[in-house]
Amino acid sequence: MPLARINISQTASREVVRAVSDVVYEAMIHVANVPQHDKFQIITRHASDELVYPEEGYLGITYSPQIVFIQVVWNAGRTTETKKAFYKAVADGIHAKAGIRKEDVWISLIDVAREDWSFGNGEMQYAPK
């Protein structure tokens, strides 16, 4: 049920984009207990002036033009420890598989209720019982 929005530089290669996509999905499955085949992602490439971040840094972290913004909407209920593990798995995985600095992996999680989804047919597949 998660929806991941991945915003990345237009200079990123096809292989880098694929690696980022795969890492996010793998972390969802192995860390956040998302069901297999539940891969819904919107990947958008941006010109350098469309990925805006504080050039002087923020909270002691400095960023580069290779910054990747990842926003995941998923069902509420995951623990703080699970979320921390998810952040780490994504940053470590993207660094290892795509060569992007961990400092440039920016993640936001949005918790929603199960009934906030329709996977098609105009139906609420996870309607309360």
What does this entry look like structurally?
This protein is an alpha/beta fold. The chain has one domain: Macrophage Migration Inhibitory Factor. Helices cover 28% and strands 22% of the residues. It has a four-stranded mixed sheet with strand order 2-1-3-4, covered by helices on one side. Helix 1 packs antiparallel against helix 2. The longest helix has 19 residues. The model has no long low-confidence stretch (mean pLDDT 96).
In whole angstroms, the N-to-C terminal distance is: 18 Å
Strand arrangement in the largest pleated sheet: 2-1-3-4
Low-confidence stretches: none
Secondary structure class reads alpha/beta
Rg on CA atoms, Å: 15 Å
Provide a compact summary of the structure:
The model has no long low-confidence stretch (mean pLDDT 96). By secondary structure, the chain is α/β, with parallel strands linked by helices.
Write a concise keyword list for the protein shown above.
129 residues; Macrophage Migration Inhibitory Factor; 2 helices; 4 strands; single chain; four-stranded mixed sheet
Q: What is the element layout, followed by pairings?
A:
Layout (H helix, E strand, L loop, with lengths): L2 E7 L4 H17 L10 E6 L21 E8 L4 H19 L6 E8 L17
Parallel strand pairs: 1-2, 3-4
Antiparallel strand pairs: 1-3
Helix pairs in contact: 1-2
